[in-house]
Structure formats: C-alpha cells, structure tokens
Amino acid sequence: MTKEYDFTQDWFHWAIPVWTQIKPIVKERKSFLEIGSFEGRSAVWTIENMMDDNSELTCIDTWEGSEEHVNGELTDAENKFDANIKIATDKHLNRVVHKLKGDSYTALAKLITPVKAEYDFIYIDGSHIARDVLTDACMAFPLLKTGGVMVFDDYLWGEARDALHRPKIAIDSFTTIHAEKIQWLHLGSQLVIRKI
Predict the structure, then answer these.
(1) Is 2 part of a structural domain of the chain?
(2) What is the pLDDT of residue 11?
(3) Which residues, listed in sequence order, are joined to residue 35 by a DSSP beta bridge?
(4) At residue 58, does pLDDT exceed 60?
(5) Pick from 87, 21, 31: which is nearest to 59 by CA?
(6) Residue 115: exposed, middle, or buried by beta-carbon count in 10 A (0-12, 13-18, 19+)?
(7) Are 29 and 51 in contact (CB under 8 A)?
(8) Quick check: is 3 in a domain?
(9) Given pLDDT bands bounded at 50, 70 and 90, which one contains residue 10?
(10) 7 part of a folded domain
(11) Closest to 132 measured CA to CA, from 179, 181, 166, 156
(12) C-alpha torsion 27→32→34→40, nearest 10
C-alpha cells in the first residue's frame, strides 16, 4: 500500500501472504464482508488486491473499540477509515464499499433480512470476546456462498487473557459444530475455511 494512506497501526501485514495464497481459491470475487475494520488497512488491501471490478465490500464496525483498546488506538479511527477507503475507491471506481456503523449483531441481522445477502469472502476480525466471535461466525456463515471462504483473525492471539476473552475457543466451537460443512484451508494466526 502506498504512502498516501493514513494508518497508525499495522495489525494486518503478516496476513497478506496467507490472503495471497487463498485468493485463487475464491472462485468469485464479487461480494466481500468484513467484520471489524478499524482504519481500513485490510479493507484497502481487499479493494486493491482481492476484489474484481463491479464488486462490493461491506464493512461493519462500531469504531468504538473493545476491551483491549486502552492506549488510544481508536482516536480518529473512523475518520481515517473513511479517508483511506475514499482513496482506494477513487483509484478503483468499479469497486464499491458499504459502511455499516454499529455492533455486528445488529448489522448482520440487517444483512440476513428481509433478503439475505450472500458473500464470496467473509473476514471476521471484530470483538475478541469469545461469545461475540461465536455470534459473528454463526450469523455470518449462512451469508457465505457455498464454495466461499471465511477467515478468522487472531486464532492464536497470545494476549494474556482468559479463554473467554480470546477468539480461539469460539472459533474451535464453531468449526466443530460445522465440521460437515467446512473444509480447512489454513491454520495459523488466522484460521481459514471454505464452505462446502
């Protein structure tokens, strides 16, 4: 990404090799969903490297942060997101971004009804609290097309928090329950599955 973007944190660069490898597996690249957008670094990379022309990305975030954001990382994050997305979409005029501000539960409910949206690629990187991660996964999975790819961030997150405040237990529960409907593609800091 060029210097024209304004990012204060880089929590994504290490994911780029994984996403580059899974890109060919995403057969259609027309509809993307991202839960947790912060300043837009992963969204910008998606716009520039994953999306085809005439495709859409929906970004969900409260831009209020969560329990681990105590060092002011969220200061002006929404304004930076807006500005970064504008730069990226100005360069790629046929790639559209929809911003849904609010908690993921409410935003996903809007995408489920009255006409269910469908996505080729879903990235779950919102709250790290296990119950929130499980809710995001369970609500988002029916929106994923058969053959579509879902990425969970921070699977091996090493923060010194108890299990209920890390994504892993929720992701393990989700993948166990849906074992007959998923294929594992990658296991590391991110867990990547395909819906079968």
Answers:
(1) no
(2) 80
(3) 60, 124
(4) yes
(5) 31
(6) exposed
(7) yes
(8) no
(9) confident
(10) no
(11) 166
(12) 100
CB 170 within 8 A of CB 133: yes
Amino acid at 11: W
What is the pTM assigned to this prediction? 0.93
**C-beta separation of 57 from 47 below 8 A:** yes
Counted domains in the chain: 1
In this prediction, residue 114 carries a pLDDT of 83
Please state, in angstroms and as integers, the Cα–Cα distance from residue 183 to each residue in 187, 190, 194, following that order.
Answer: 11, 15, 5
Range list of H helices, 23-129: 41-49, 77-91, 104-112
- What pLDDT digit, counting tens, does each position of 92-143 carry? 999 999 999 999 999 999 999 888 899 999 999 999 999 999 999 999 999 9
pLDDT score at 175: 98
* CATH code for position 45: 3.40.50.150
- Please give the structure tokens belonging to residue 151: 């990425």
List CB contacts of 122: < 8 A, sequence separation 6 or more.
32, 33, 34, 35, 140, 143, 144, 148, 149, 150, 151
**Full domain range(s) for residue 135:** 13-195
